[in-house]
Amino acid sequence: MSDVPESVECLVDAAGVDTVLAFLEAFGGTRMYVPKRADTSQLTQMYGDELAGAICSYFGPGYWDVPMHKAWRVLCYRNAGMTVGEMATRTGLSERQIYATLKRARETGTRVCAPRARCRVDERQISLF
């Protein structure tokens, strides 16, 4: 897994990478009000107690500018086997920017997985494995 940005490391520790990625997709780049307690917040209903509690304890109460961390998200998506087109859709970057981000990551020595081949499965055929 790629290095987690310091500003969301506490969230990843509390709720996991997948939950934080979904949160950043939904709220990245926005300013949100973070309440003092998470138990009555909308975040708890949407993303669970762990993420909402971590956000409230580290960034609240008050307003928080949610980071986008597009480069980190691109690396996470690639390591999960997504195609460049899927990553572009999820991050809002162009495919050219995705390729440039992956190239920069490789040049700095960050491990980047190759895209997983997507095999077409014929439902009429019995699986041998």
TrEMBL record:
InterPro entries reported in the protein's UniProt record: Homeodomain-like_sf
Domain of life: Bacteria
Name of the protein in question: Mor transcription activator domain-containing protein
